[in-house]
Structures are given as structure tokens and as C-alpha cells.
Protein: Histone-lysine N-methyltransferase, H3 lysine-9 specific SUVH4-like isoform X3
Organism: Cucurbita maxima
Amino acid sequence: MVVKSRVLRSATNGELHSSVTPEEKPKRAKVATRGRKNVKAAAVKGDAEEPSPSPQRRTSARIQIKQLAEKELLVRQRVELPDETDSPSKRTKKNGPLRSKRNTKSKDKAVEDKAVAVPVSNDVTNSKDGGASEPEVCALEKSTTADEGGLANVVEKSDHAKVKETLRLFNKYYLHFVQEEEQRCKKAEVAQKASKGSKSKKVAPEEDTKSKRKRPDLKAITKMMEANEILNPEKRIGNIPGISIGHRFYSRAEMVAVGFHSHWLNGIDYMGLSYSKMVIQYWAEKGISGFTVFKFRLRRIEGQSLLTTNQVQFVYGRVPKSVSEIRGLVCEDITGSQEDIPIPATNLVDDQPVAPTGFTYCKSIKVGHGVKLPSNANGCDCRGSCISSRTCSCAKLNGLDFPYVHRDGGRLIEAKDVVYECGPNCGCGPGCVNRTSQRGIKYRLEVFRTPKKGWAVRSWDFIPSGAPVCEYTGVLSRTDDLDHVSENNYIFDIDCLQTIRGFGGRMRRSRDASLLPNNSADGIDDQRSESVPEFCVDACSTGNIARFINHSCEPNLFVQCVLSSHHDIKLARVVLFAAENIPPLQELTYDYGYALDSVYGSDGKIKQMPCFCGATECRKRLF
Ligand SMILES: C[S@@+](CC[C@H](N)C(=O)[O-])C[C@H]1O[C@@H](n2cnc3c(N)ncnc32)[C@H](O)[C@@H]1O
């Protein structure tokens, strides 16, 4: 059997809610907010301070406006905004039709309406750069669906897919703007150095660029608002389709992207009086640190099931703090110290737990018999680190840009046909951003035993979208040479051309302007008939952690062909990247990319293998 490469697909499942019945209030209200980390917004602060049963204190409209303005000012001091004097109304106008529509009720109008604030949102003080900060766990309730099959399933399926797609789109925009920001900073740095050298005080880079500065996450959100790409733009009370309990958001902006928050800044949102029947009671109190704390007593929506602490906090389990804490440890390091970070194996499944055996760990590709690697390509002339995409010849191959951003040790901005990295003949050093996938494994991975899929892989660390996880290593072989092998579950065909063209039901990638140095896009299409992969990586007897990564119909990794030393796409390196923000302990998976009924046994009959990925959109078969 052949394990084939694949591209990303869609998301996780579920729905949510935010209310509690008055009787259940003290316990569950606490649960509902405790899962949300990094929470300093007024509504959530209320969590730390048990809602008081004392008489309700109403706050006048004037005071409410003042408090909101104070809060906004406070937040604006903590995050860098492009124009310090911009008023909220001015910003609304800038943000396009959708934003305008959603903000048609200004704060003043809300107060006129005697609007009831609803704690749709939480933290107002996210990380300064808006990047992957502390995750925010969805502490909301999964609603029960009366009809578990048929149509209901279809609706649910597409909701989850939409959430996943929206978050991926957001992360793509986000990384594009991160790149823009990194380039701006670099320019400013260079200009500053130049101005230090010269006596004239003509350049004031900080001042010069300050007006252009804006957080990449906010830019991404603005872009999505302008393009009407925000999911669930209408405010609502109750569950948001496609988001399950325990879903982790990694920035406030992600929550805005899926419609969980309607504003990236405000901690508390409001809805008109018509919704007042949902809020039993609200009041304001002085919190322990002097802030005004708004508290809300919400009514549980009819039919909504109970929410438990487990659902909110322990969806993925607990990350061990040391080797002694690892349950079911069967091997301390399957890599035999080859990787910088040990990879333990655990087995809590078998009665007599054993470690993975039958292979030799090898962190890099071994060139097999009958395979000759092409000579190294000419490199770029950059020094130290590649900075200018206009002068770096490797950047030119990537469509006149670097495919990675520096953030988090290097993240791929988006999946590409091929990524051209700097190689042995390049003038830059190992720290160059365009060598991101060559730096080895940087997350704490674990091989663990599953009941139905054999071994599997997960990470103890959060993995941000676009981060390289590992290369698929093994013996680089000719596919013809392995044709006679009947049972080998660890062969990865190097089928970049199929990936590029979207063959076999695969998602076609957006065409890269600079595709291959000597091949036009048409040239690649011409090779359609010759697209049977000539080479593969066989990880059966020799391989690395990638050989343990299972297939999923809704994967969180994607396969990226990378060329770093030579430029022969038939022998490209196969690297697995995070397709989305991956929370700790979630199984790492990619789509093996089999077309159904495409695998034949030695008897000439179609072979089938059941899929146990457990995804809502599972095809039920691997092939
Ligand atoms: C590359 S190996 C993955 C690691 C493997 N689970 C192991 O124990 O070594 C591929 C094999 O894992 C199993 N596998 C992977 N994903 C699966 C899935 N979604 N459902 C069922 N089996 C799966 C199949 O036996 C497949 O041929």
C-alpha cells in the first residue's frame, strides 16, 4: 500500500451556548468562564468575584458610556493602534460595509434603546501583537439535535467545514500581514542604521512608519469584514453552529472571524431590548482591582444540556510536566537522541504494553539503491540572512516573495505548489527564514497507541498554523522497485505534480506564478500523462516520527513539497505543516489522499481499508 500526500480539508464539530439557569448559576457560571484564559474583561472578572445576591445596582446610561469609553481608552493604551486619535465612529466608517452594518447601533443608540449588554465576548487585553497568545477555550454548551441523521447531519457538517475554512482564511491573511509588518520593521531598522551613519536628521524611521503600523490580526479581520468573509456576522444568543465545546481560539481576532465576538476590542457586546428576556438580571459592581465589573445572570435556553467542567477544561487531557508524569510510558525516546527533543512512546491500550518496534529511527532521508540525487542548485548571493525578495534569487523562485514569516521560528504563509528554500550553495546562513523546514523538530511530540489505528502522534505543545512539524523521512526509492512489495503501509509517493494539478479528488492549489524554474504552468500540465510518481520515500524499516502519523478525512496537517538543495520536483522533500492552530494533545493527521477503489491487491481485486479517523466528515474508508 502506498501512503499518499494530501492537502487540507475541514473542521471539528459541535455547537455552543452561553447561558445558565438561575438555580444552577453559582457553580456553572464559574465553570463557564473559568475555561477562558487570559480574561480580564469586566464580564469575566465577575467570575473571580462570586455574583452578589445583594440588590441589583443599575448604572445610568451616562455612566455606562463613560465606563465604556474609559475601558476603550485603557485597552487602546495597551495595544498599539494606527491612529491614536481615531474615534470609534471614524474607525467604523473605515471598515467597510459589513462592519458598518454591524455597527449601525452605536453605543449611544444602544443606550437610548436601554440596550441590555450580553456577555458575548471576553478578553479585551489580548497579546500585543494579536498572534498566538493564550488560547481562549470555548466554555459554551453543545446543543442537542433532535434529528441526529440525514439532513441534520448535512447541516452540521457544512457548519464545521465553514468554521474551519474561515479560521484558515483568517490565519492566511494574518500571516500575510505579519510578513508585511516584518518587512516594515526591517526597513525601519535599516533606515535607522543609515540615519545614524549620516549626520543629516532627514530620516525619522519610527515617525515615518508609525502611521502605517497596525496589528496584523486586526488587519486580517478588517480585510475579512470588507470582503464579507466573517462567518455568522449577525449577533445572536445561543450556539454558534460549527463550534464545539472546548474549541480553543488563539486570538480575539479569530473569535471575530467566526462571529463569536462582533468586535475585536470590546469585552462586552450588547443587543437590543428585544433580547432582554434572555437576561434575567444585570448589574455593575466595583471589582477588587478597582474596575467596574458588569455581571449578568443568564437564562439557560430551553433544551440546552448541562455543561460540565470536563467538557470545558479537559477536552484534550493534560500535558505531562516531566517524564515521570507520563502515563503508559513504553519508550523514553524513540529517536535514540537523534532529535533535539526526545519523542516518548506511550501505550495505555494493550494489556501487555510494548513500544513501537521493527524500524530504525533516522532523522534524515537515506538515498536508496538506484537513486541518484541531482547536483545542488545554484544558490542566492545573499549574506547572513535573506532579506530582500527583490534581490534574493530563491525568493524569486517563490513568486518574488519569501514563503515564510519569521514569527514563531518560521511559519509558511500558505500552502504552495512548491516551496523553494535556500540550500547548500546559497550565501545565507542557517538562520535564514527561507530555511525554515530544515531546522528539525521543534515541538514536543509523543507517539501513542490507539485502539483502532495502531500508533499515532500528538504534540504536547501548541503548534501554530503554518509551522513545519516534520519531514517524511525514510529510504528514497524508485516506485518501480517497490511494486513487488505486497504489504507496506509506510510508502509515501513523491507526487508533487499530482498535488499541483489537484488529481485524484485532491484540492487543487492556487497556481503559483513562478511555478518551476524551467517549466511554465502549461509545461506542468503537459506532463499529465507522465504523472505517475517515479520516486517515493519508504519509511517501513527506516524512518522518523512522520511514519507514525495517521490519516484523517479532516486533517490538521498538510503536505508541502519543498526543494532546498536541488530543483528536481520528482525528488522533492515531503514536509508536513500545520494547516491550522493545533492545540496540545490533539492527534496530528494528514490526508493520505487515496481515491476510493484505487488500491488493488495482488489478486487483482480492489482493496478496501476502513477509516477510523472519527471526523464528522469521514469517508469511512482510507481507500
Ligand atoms: C503510515 S502508517 C501510520 C502509523 C500506523 N498507525 C502505525 O501503527 O505504525 C499507515 C497505517 O496506519 C493505519 N491508519 C492510518 N490512519 C488510519 C485511519 N484513519 N483509520 C484506520 N487506520 C489508519 C493504517 O493501517 C495505515 O495503513
